[in-house]
Write a structure and sequence with these properties.
Length: 109
Amino acid sequence: MAGHGEVQPGRPEPELRAQRPWGRRAQAIAAVVWPSFLAAAVATMLFFAYVDPADMQDVLRLPPDSSRMTGYGLGFFFFWLITGISSAVSVYLLRTARRNPRNQDNGKG
């Protein structure tokens, strides 16, 4: 019986196990979700540094008892949606771009 911290024969250590590479779809999703999340966080901070969500209650037709946190949350998800669409269009354009064999010859055009 192997003690604590010992490696059992035939079982590689967890950090030595081969990791399965990400599929193309998983890479595309990560390339859309993560940068758009970060951009939405920055946009939310910048926007709400100048705009008070309580001032937007009439425009958004929120219930009068809603808190500022509701405004912050709605603002963040709005910015995440917009930046997500932007990232998705970028990934789509990169994936569907035609490959021109003349431009791949050692960087010569």
